[in-house]
Amino acid sequence: MQSKKIMVIFGTRPEATKMCTVVNALNKYPERFDVKVVVTGQHKEQLYQVLQNFNLKPDIDLGIMKENQSLSYVTSSAISGLDSVIQEDKPDFILVHGDTTTSFCGALVGFYHKIPVGHIEAGLRSYEKYSPWPEEVNRRLVDVVADILFAPTALSCENLIKEGYKKEQIYITGQTAIDAAMATYKEEYLFNEPELNKIDFENSRVITMTAHRRENYGEPMRQMFTAIRRIADNNPDVLIVYPVHLSPTVREMAYSTLSGHERILLLEPIDFVDMLNLQARSHFIMSDSGGLQEECVVFHKPLVLMRDTTERPEAIEAGAVYLAGTDESVIYDVSMKLLTDSNFYNQMATARNPFGDGKASERIAHILSQYFGFVDELPEEFL
Ligand code: UD1
Question: Could you tell me which residue ranges the UDP-N-acetylglucosamine 2-epimerase domain spans (predicted)?
């Protein structure tokens, strides 16, 4: 049988971290799949860092990013760029991931060309239209358009069933983020960012933090950062490490409220391998990110989640993540509890990993092999 043309479309750093393992899994079967990686370039520097880590180069880069880009700009330029690429290449199948504007555009253009679409990380829901914004709605729109829904967990599968999707089009695969995290952690590790090699992880308690969400721009982010500064002020053995996202809005707030403190280390974005190895060596994590909620459980590190809702309630139910919102006093209090109450800390740190077993990417390659008739059997689901 002739190999099938699979177009893998992504555009931002988190999509790349969760898609590269899938690309590599598909590439193990060159007789089945002819894989083309198309990036919209919604992100530039942050995306290429990840691709390098996985030794991948995009076949096509639409290079759409510009400073302070609006959502409408990203959407319109990704749609017109992807339309030409898909028109020319005529893939047999399109794979998109998650909830970004790039994912939404890739799925929609695939649908316009009547090409089947697979949605990796389908079925996550906060059921709040504006939180995360615009990701909650992007994700639902991709699910509507997709033909195959790769749900990471039983809960995301249940969400889809409740919304009327048929079980025949849903496969529970586990999270590809877990595959990437497991493959990337190293016991002996020299960081690429020299500042990280200067940290005394034995004698200080490192809190790794990130913050970038659009719905937190402005007052919520100011409250988050004020709490963080107070934590640094009041704990002489704590070092807060914050690789600052390249968004100009985030950078302005981060540097104006957090710079100049001897126990807060502001860094340029660090690469994916550094980030995972930093998490593994941290005392705990503070973040508004989606992906870190999955990675922290691999390393048994508690996470204080600085947003109002999450589409990943599994980690909260398991006890690994604490949903703190963006109120300064709540963030401060729960972080202080983690620093002072060892029972509370240990309870969070020993929570089970509800997200995956490291085999999600391989399952996805297997499911696509079955879909195209290269094999008869489906893999066991992640349960
Ligand atoms: C996007 C995703 C979000 C994801 C996040 C990860 C959407 C709607 N949002 O949000 O789901 O969690 O990526 O980072 O798709 N920038 C650079 N260089 C880079 C990357 C970003 O300069 O390599 C700057 C640009 O000025 C850009 C700004 O960051 O205007 C914001 O990027 P954008 O992709 O619009 O939104 P994110 O907040 O990154």
Answer: 31-368
